[in-house]
């Protein structure tokens, strides 16, 4: 943040000197200073945003597995790795790991469709009958 603040000072001074022409410094030097400090200000702003900006919260394995089960229920009982990744906001490798864990627990079963697409089928128990 200090980089941005100090750069803004020099950018303002260079613009003032270029606009008024009252400086003893050569015009090309002033333009060089302006470009340099504008660049430094942009880099400093990006660094501040990257460090202070919004952060994506890490999802626990349990939360991800629950999200996968909810998604499977919404989609009729089967999901693909890409559907899980895009809907749950995780990488494809994390989505695959979550689906493989569900298979390991006996909750999901991998199936290959006729088109060669790997889907994971989750068989849900039917809801209890109302009395």
UniProtKB/TrEMBL annotation:
Keyword Transmembrane: yes
Residue intervals passing through the bilayer: 31-52
This protein's UniProt keywords: Membrane, Transmembrane, Transmembrane helix
Protein name, entry field: MarR family transcriptional regulator
């Amino acid at each position: 943040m200090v980089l941005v603040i100090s750069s803004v000072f020099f950018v303002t001074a260079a613009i003032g000197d270029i606009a008024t022409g009252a400086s003893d410094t050569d015009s090309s030097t002033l333009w060089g200073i302006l470009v340099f400090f504008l660049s430094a200000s942009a880099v400093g702003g990006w660094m501040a945003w990257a460090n202070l900006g919004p952060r994506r919260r890490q999802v626990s394995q349990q939360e991800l597995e629950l999200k996968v089960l909810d998604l499977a229920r919404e989609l009729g009982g089967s999901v693909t790795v890409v559907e899980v990744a895009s809907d749950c906001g995780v990488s494809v490798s994390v989505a695959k790991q979550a689906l493989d864990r569900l298979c390991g627990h006996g909750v999901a079963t991998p199936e290959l469709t006729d088109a060669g697409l790997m889907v994971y089928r989750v068989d849900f128990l039917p809801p209890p009958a109302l009395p």
